[in-house]
């Protein structure tokens, strides 16, 4: 393992994407989000994505100079066309628009089409929570199908993630972000880079046999939904909200990717802000006041583990597997950047 301060990683990512043709401001958004994912403990959505994104530029699936635009607009809704800009840039654009409308009129629904891979959705929902806006966000199948439906013997769905953030003025925002597959695809990449095995009941090989070897996924294997029929049902909801509902098929591109569905509402929509804050703290205190089960030291709220991980990594740096670092270094060289000389 190698270890880097988070600010050094931000500089490295920023320089790579500037060299790849992105505007400096867009490159900084990508850098800050990828490193924020590392800080939260979700290395699956960090710098290991850089080679993938650079290849997408080469393949014409990402336009590094594209600018997102609003093509339908009402006081409570918007349709954002990302024009195949970076997913992080489009995600921030759409999130900020949803925040603005929710603060103005109370609620907002935003449809996003033609966006590249966004990564971890909680980055965007927490961006809203920081402005006292509750946000829900979901995406459907965005790459090759990689998850089988419940009762199916072949993949047809993506990881189809969902994220929620609820503002909490007295602590970490209450944030839930999960793939509806039994494991996120990025975590399979992390396990491969670390030469580790996966948990059982997550993955089948190309012959439909259970496996814990991450390499089997890249050799034609596929994932299962988490929780059987329950995870599958949530995956279907993600697929329908971010596909047929948002009008994704009306805006094709070089690659067929799902759209994004965002719903936002002001935290004081139903009651005064101070009343909301008091009610939230009362509920959190009641839940966290339950005695911990054997093997646990306390009851945590969703979002607390990530907040604590961020504190530690800000202080102690971010560990990067050597395989990941070598892949990023090679990607940097492909656009003329020697990341070893960036400090």
CATH architecture heading of the largest domain: 2-Layer Sandwich
CATH topology of the largest domain: Ribosomal Protein S8, Chain: A, domain 1
Output the structural class: alpha+beta
Radius of gyration (CA) equals: 20 Å
Strand content: 15-25%
Poorly predicted residue ranges: none
From the N-terminal CA to the C-terminal CA, the straight-line distance is: 18 Å
Shape type: globular
Count the DSSP helices: 11
CATH superfamily of the largest domain: Malate/L-lactate/L-sulpholactate dehydrogenase, NADPH binding domain
Largest sheet: 7 strands, mixed
Order of strands in the sheet with most strands: 2-3-4-11-5-6-7
- How are helices and strands ordered from N to C? EHHHEEHEHEEEHEEHEHEHHEH
Number of domains: 2
Instruction: Using the coordinates above, name the CATH class of the largest domain.
Output: Alpha Beta
Instruction: Specify the helix fraction band.
Output: 40-55%
Number of strands: 12
Arithmetic mean of pLDDT: 94
Descriptive key words:
343 residues; alpha+beta; Hypothetical Oxidoreductase Yiak, Chain: A, domain 1; Ribosomal Protein S8, Chain: A, domain 1; 7-stranded mixed beta sheet; 3-stranded antiparallel beta sheet; 11 helices; globular
